[in-house]
Every structure is written in structure tokens, then in C-alpha cells.
Design goal:
The complex is a heterodimer of chains A (about 110) and B (about 110).
Chain A: E1 4-7, E2 10-14, E3 19-25, E4 31-37, E5 43-50, E6 55-58, E7 61-66, E8 71-76, E9 85-92, E10 102-104, E11 108-113
Parallel strand pairs in A: 2-11
Antiparallel strand pairs in A: 1-3, 3-8, 4-5, 4-9, 6-7, 7-8, 9-10, 9-11
Chain B: E1 4-7, E2 10-13, E3 19-25, E4 31-37, E5 43-51, E6 54-57, E7 64-66, E8 76-78, E9 87-94, E10 103-104, E11 108-112
The chains are: A mainly beta (about 110), B mainly beta (about 110).
Chain lengths: ~110, ~110
């Protein structure tokens, strides 16, 4: 099964609204990353948060990490139509037999209407 | 320009054939990965490699094989043993054990005809 699970599976909002996506994972991690994928393309890295960090900002993006709940959230503020894409969280479990694995969740499909 | 290149962009395979997908990076990254993505789904890890001449199975390695003879290259062979190979294949690389961001290629779409 997937290490990371995103919620919701799909999100539809109007331009200017905020979009929040959540990610839950199962095992201890070294870091958690968020990626974006436009339809039929490769993934683009958005932000990385380490296990000892609780919050990180990058432009209109805000990521939080709660290691006690094994969950993370990605907030996109003041969304634009160009933010329409799929968003994935990825975890590096970094230990034991899973060392070196970078595992992705199922993704959230975000649609921003003009 | 530095980056990661996958080829071909589209690939068609007949039943029973082996096909090889190319992945090359000039980022001097130690780690490389192969993922499979089915329509509307997330990425599933096929194989990964942390260093030249070494690689590990991911979650869905059956029916696939890889090699890592050079740091910059990590080709994936989809064998005839893979019964449902039609999918979008993504290659990625990262710095390595510090696990910074992964850089992705543009993908290869494989279709069985």
C-alpha cells in the first residue's frame, strides 16, 4: 500500500480562494516533500519539510508537518487558474530495508476556475 | 542545460516483446528512480538506485529489470513477464542520501498494441 495518502482526492475552487490539501503517512520519515504535476508531464518539486520542522513557507505555499499525527498539509493561498494540477506528497522513510525509497501518495487533483 | 531526459516520449510494444526505456541525467546525482503511473493514480516505485552498480526493488518490480552501469544512466526494461505494461513511466534523480528534491523527466507513455 502507499506510504502517503492525500485528501481530498479532488478539489474544485474559484480563483482567489485558498486550497488546502492533506497528506497522511504511516512510518517515521526523514522529510516530506510536495510535488505538482500538470497533465501528462513530469513532476515538479514545490517544497521540502524536514522531520524536525513544523512549518515552512515558499511564496504562496505554506506546508505544515505534524509528526505525532503523521500528517502534513499544503496550503495554496490566493489560487490562480494556473495552479490547476495534481499535487502529490512524497516521503523518504530513510531507514532499515526501506533506505533510499522515495514514496508518493495518490495525489489531489486541484481545479481552479477563473 | 542540466536535467533529466527520458526517451522516447511515446512507445508502442507488441505482446511478448521486451522494450527498454531510456533515462539519462547530467545533474551528477547519485540516486535514480523509476516510477509507474496509471491514469488518475499516484506514482508507484518500480526500482531505485543509490549508487552505480547497485539497485533495489521497489513496490512493483515484477516484470521489470534495470541496470546502473553509469552514474548518469538508469535504463528500465519492461519484459514480456509484465502482463499489464500500458502506463506512464517516470524517471527521477536526486542528490542521494540527503534526499533533497527529486528531478523528474517528462515521462514515457508505453502502450501495448
Amino acid at each position: 500500500s502507499q506510504q502517503g495518502e492525500e485528501d481530498p482526492q479532488a478539489l474544485s475552487i474559484q480563483e482567489g480562494e485558498n486550497a488546502t490539501m492533506n497528506c497522511s503517512y504511516k512510518t517515521s520519515i526523514n522529510n516530506l516533500q510536495w510535488y505538482r504535476q500538470n497533465s501528462g508531464r513530469g513532476l515538479v518539486h514545490l517544497i521540502l519539510i524536514r522531520s524536525n520542522e513544523r512549518e515552512k513557507h515558499s511564496g504562496r505555499l505554506r506546508v505544515t508537518l505534524d509528526t505525532s499525527k503523521k500528517s502534513s498539509s499544503l496550503l495554496i493561498t490566493a489560487s490562480r487558474a494556473a495552479d490547476t494540477a495534481s499535487y502529490f506528497c512524497a516521503t523518504d522513510v530513510g531507514g532499515g530495508t526501506s533506505y533510499g525509497k522515495l514514496t508518493f501518495g495518490q495525489g489531489t487533483i486541484l481545479t481552479v476556475h477563473p | 542545460d542540466g536535467g533529466i531526459t527520458q526517451s522516447p516520449k511515446y512507445l508502442f510494444r507488441k505482446e511478448g516483446q521486451n522494450v527498454t526505456l531510456s533515462c539519462e541525467q547530467n545533474l551528477n546525482h547519485d540516486a535514480m528512480y523509476w516510477y509507474r503511473q496509471d491514469p488518475g493514480q499516484g506514482l508507484r516505485l518500480i526500482y531505485y538506485s543509490q549508487i552505480v552498480n547497485d539497485f533495489q526493488k521497489g513496490d512493483i518490480a515484477e516484470g521489470y529489470s534495470v541496470s546502473r552501469e553509469k552514474k548518469e544512466s538508469f535504463p528500465l526494461t519492461v519484459t514480456s513477464a509484465q502482463k499489464n505494461p500500458t502506463a506512464f513511466y517516470l524517471c527521477a534523480s536526486s542528490v542521494g542520501t540527503t534526499f533533497g528534491e527529486a528531478f523528474f523527466g517528462q515521462g514515457t507513455r508505453l502502450t501495448v498494441v
